[in-house]
Specification:
The complex is a heterodimer of chains A (350) and B (408). With 350 residues, chain A is mainly α. Helix content of chain A is 75%, strand content 0%. In chain A, helix 7 packs antiparallel against helix 12. The longest helix of chain A is centred in the first third of the chain and has 33 residues. Chain A starts with a helix and ends with a helix. In chain B, helix 9 links the parallel strand 6 and strand 7. The relative contact order of chain B is 0.12. Chain B has 408 residues and is an alpha/beta fold. Chain B contains 13 helices and 17 strands. In chain B, the strands form 4 sheets. A 7-stranded mixed β-sheet of chain B has the order 12-10-9-8-6-7-17, sandwiched between helices. Chain B has a 6-stranded parallel β-sheet with strand order 2-1-3-4-5-11, with helices on both faces. Chain B has 2 domains: 200 residues, Response regulator (Rossmann fold); 192 residues, 3-Layer(aba) Sandwich (Rossmann fold). Classes of the chains: A mainly alpha (350), B alpha/beta (408). The interface between A and B is large, with 44 and 53 residues.
């Protein structure tokens, strides 16, 4: 049994690592075909994302929303529900946060930030709850429904910024009214990284604690592991699913709030910048583990931050980073099939 | 390798960019006559990892090039807005003392700020060109505030003296006159007297183009109407194709549009066997049979002017470079795409004459009386608005002859 545990542990370490290396190797071939030296490309990525404090800051600022968006998929996935509505939840969070901020333009700094965060989390949470409720009560596939909810959220955003919430002065770039200066989220002192990073780290750690150290987390694991067994135990499946979906959506909603309060200062079409979609990748790379989300966000944040350097220094097309992300994603999905091959052989042998 | 030598390496490899894009036939026009000393790029980009020192040496020959950074919001081969800017940047190849870097598909988020900062800190850019409207506020503003020694030039922004840092300059072009000419070609070519226009959003910039296109068409063929479909966003190829197809179904026989890139619209027109006018960039390659002409941007004019001013040590902060650099057809900021094969000799002559008149000012686009399509008088008789008139910047109406509404 000891051998089995050890083998499982080795698998959970070696398989993702080799998948990363494999995906990177595929990307290297891709670069070589394009006429770039793959080692120079990887060195560029390292230089641009992880080599010194300046580049680390670029990575961290990209990683912050990824952590929050990654949790949106990782949390419900623990209970077996695959949600890919991260982008929609983030957009809804941004709308909620801006609406709250504009409703109380004269509120003090902390009050308005708390209000905006609460509104953003509520909006994002309820948005993902729609998908979870459709799944639980009506049997609608949550992958499809949450994906479609993204489009609805983006359409709603466009409608609001071009109609009811439009700042008449935003002629050629429809936006809401700007938030007051007191409603902006600050920077971590001495850096170019905004406080959203702290939200991301705290959220990941809290989610990790919730899933691995509480009875609720255990219940979620049972629901995800075997629905029938969970029913026999008398677990409230709907409650677990909806709670996790709400929490996941709330994290993405918080990312939306950070985007408007720390980056844009208002809501406009740029709020829908694709962090949500990368968040799905983060969650899968992390194998739906919140602590893993923290680490993988740094890695993918670094990749995103190095996109410019690859264009300027390595003469690669702007889509090169997307190709790398796609290759990693495919190899990692494929590597999921490898789990248990070795450890279960050990189990049988013992 | 120090950050400094890394910066040099990066800039040299960026020169390699030029050669790759020059293979694109669309670039051929600006490539002709340029005299860029070839950087031994292949060698460097292949071995960049090991040959940092060699790269530094290669650049020691040209002391302190003027490093300019360009950011585009989308891919630089979109045959549209971004390619028009990228091609403008290519025009700088005629100056061996310019080192122009570019980053494409930069989203309007922290990524934009980061790209600008990287160009400044890693590549020593002394001026940054932010080509997308959304790069301005808050991104260019915040980077400009922290880097007062660097100059920023933004396409189309609204600079306000009391709010924004002094080292930001604005450039933009007024393309209404070219749309007017493009509309004239459409009006003279259509057989059904119906033109289709696929537009992204009902914002002033787009409405101006719809209106001037329509007025151009109606100036030569008063029976023409333009049917407008708004897709809702800049890059929605599927919806653009659907809209174009349905416009074709409804009997419109010339299609044009204002989206990030109307390539899909032009392509669909070709497939349906009708005519197409382009916008942003020369789209003739998308419709060898039905392409008539189009209004395209010539940002190269602007970028070369800036490069020369910067070389002379001028700066927008101290006012030696104008805060706003704008231009029209006359200033070659924009032009009509070369005519397609279906444009008759007579039409070509009419357009050539109209072009002369627009340039000498005797044929203004916005000459009253102009009514909107609900019958309301927008520009009274006797009033003529030049295309540079700020009054037009807040246009929110569609001119008489347009079928469509600015609000859904």
């Amino acid at each position: 049994m000891k051998g089995y545990e050890g083998a499982r542990w080795m698998e959970s370490l070696l398989i993702p690592l080799s998948a990363l290396v494999g995906g990177a190797a595929l990307f290297g071939i891709f670069c070589a075909v394009l006429g770039s030296n793959p080692f120079a490309v990887f060195y560029s990525i390292y230089r641009a994302a992880f080599s010194d404090w300046y580049s680390w800051q670029n990575t961290l600022v990209r990683a912050a929303p990824l952590m929050l968006c990654g949790l949106c998929t990782a949390l419900p996935a623990r209970a077996g529900l695959i949600v890919i509505g991260n982008e929609g939840a983030m957009v809804m969070g941004a709308i909620g946060a801006v609406a709250a901020g504009l409703a109380v333009p004269n509120a003090p700094h902390l009050t308005s930030l708390l209000l905006m965060a609460a509104a953003g989390m509520l909006a994002g949470g309820l948005w993902i709850c729609i998908a979870a409720a459709l799944h639980h009560y009506r049997g609608v596939n949550a992958v499809i429904s949450s994906l479609l909810l993204n489009y609805i959220a983006i359409a709603l955003l466009n409608h609001l910024i071009e109609g009811p919430m439009r700042d008449p002065a935003s002629l050629n770039n429809p936006s809401t009214m700007p938030l007051a200066d007191a409603q902006h989220l600050g920077m971590i002192s001495g850096t170019t990284v905004h406080d959203g990073l702290l939200f991301g780290i705290v959220a990941c750690l809290a989610a990790w604690f919730l899933l691995s150290r509480t009875t609720f987390g255990f219940a979620a694991k049972v629901v995800g592991g075997n629905l029938r067994a969970a029913q026999l135990c008398g677990l409230g499946i709907g409650r677990v699913l909806l709670t996790l979906s709400f929490l996941g959506g709330a994290c993405a909603g918080l990312a939306g709030m950070v985007e408007v309060a720390a980056v844009q200062g208002r809501a406009n079409a740029s709020v829908n910048a694709g962090y949500g979609y990368v968040g799905i990748l983060v969650a899968f790379l992390a194998r739906q583990n919140p602590a893993g989300v923290l680490v993988v966000s740094l890695l993918l944040g670094g990749l995103m931050a190095s996109g410019g350097m690859l264009q300027r220094a390595q003469n690669l097309p702007d889509a090169a980073v997307l190709v790398l992300e796609g290759m990693l994603f495919l190899v990692i999905l494929w590597s999921e099939t490898l789990y248990g091959r070795w450890s279960e052989r050990r189990l049988r042998a013992s | 390798m120090s950050t400094r030598s890394w910066g040099r390496l990066a800039t040299c490899a960026a020169v390699g960019n030029r050669r790759r894009t020059a293979a694109n036939p669309a670039d051929a026009r600006l490539t002709i006559g340029s005299s860029v000393p070839r950087c031994p790029t292949k060698f460097i980009s292949r071995r960049a990892f090991l040959a940092g020192a060699a790269a530094s040496l290669a650049h020691a020959a040209t002391p302190d090039p003027l490093v300019l950074g360009f950011l585009y919001n989308g891919p630089k081969n979109d045959l549209g807005y971004n390619q028009a800017h990228a091609e403008g940047k290519q025009a700088l190849r005629r100056y061996p003392w310019v080192n122009a870097l570019e980053e494409a598909s930069v989203p309007e988020t922290v990524a934009a700020e980061e790209s600008m900062r990287n160009m400044i800190h890693q590549d020593r850019a002394s001026a940054v060109f932010a080509t997308s409207f959304g790069f301005f506020d808050p991104f260019a503003i915040s980077v400009a505030r922290r880097n007062p020694q660097v100059q920023f030039f933004h396409c189309g922004g609204m600079w306000q003296a009391d709010k924004h840092p002094k080292n930001i300059g604005i450039y933009f072009g007024f393309i209404d006159e070219v749309e007017f000419l493009s509309g004239m070609v459409a009006g003279l070519t259509t057989k059904t007297n119906r033109l289709g226009f696929v537009a992204a959003k009902p914002i002033p910039q787009v409405l101006r183009n719809i209106n001037s296109f329509t007025m151009g068409a109606r100036s030569v063929n008063p029976r023409v109407v333009t049917q407008v479909v708004f897709t809702g966003d800049w890059v929605l190829p599927v919806r653009e194709a659907e809209a174009s197809s349905s416009l074709a179904d409804q009997g419109n026989d010339v299609l044009t549009g204002h989206t990030g890139s109307p390539r899909v619209i032009v392509q669909m027109a070709e497939r349906r066997g009708i005519f197409a006018n382009g916008y942003q960039f020369n789209q003739s390659s998308m419709a060898p049979r039905g392409f008539l002409t189009g209004a395209e941007w010539h940002w190269g004019t602007v970028y070369c002017r800036y490069a020369e001013m910067l070389r002379e040590g001028k700066s927008v902060s101290d006012g030696t470079i104008p805060r706003r650099l704008t231009g029209t057809l006359k200033d070659a900021f924009c032009a009509l795409s070369p005519f397609g094969t279906q444009v008759t000799e007579r039409t070509r002559q009419t357009i050539a004459e109209a072009r002369e008149k627009i340039i000498d000012g005797s044929l203004p686009v916005y000459r009253g009386p102009i009514r909107d399509n609900t019958g309301q008088m927008r520009i009274p008789a006797g009033v003529t608005r030049r295309v540079t008139d700020p009054e037009l910047d807040s246009m929110d109406w569609l001119v008489e002859g347009v079928i469509g509404r600015t609000r859904s």
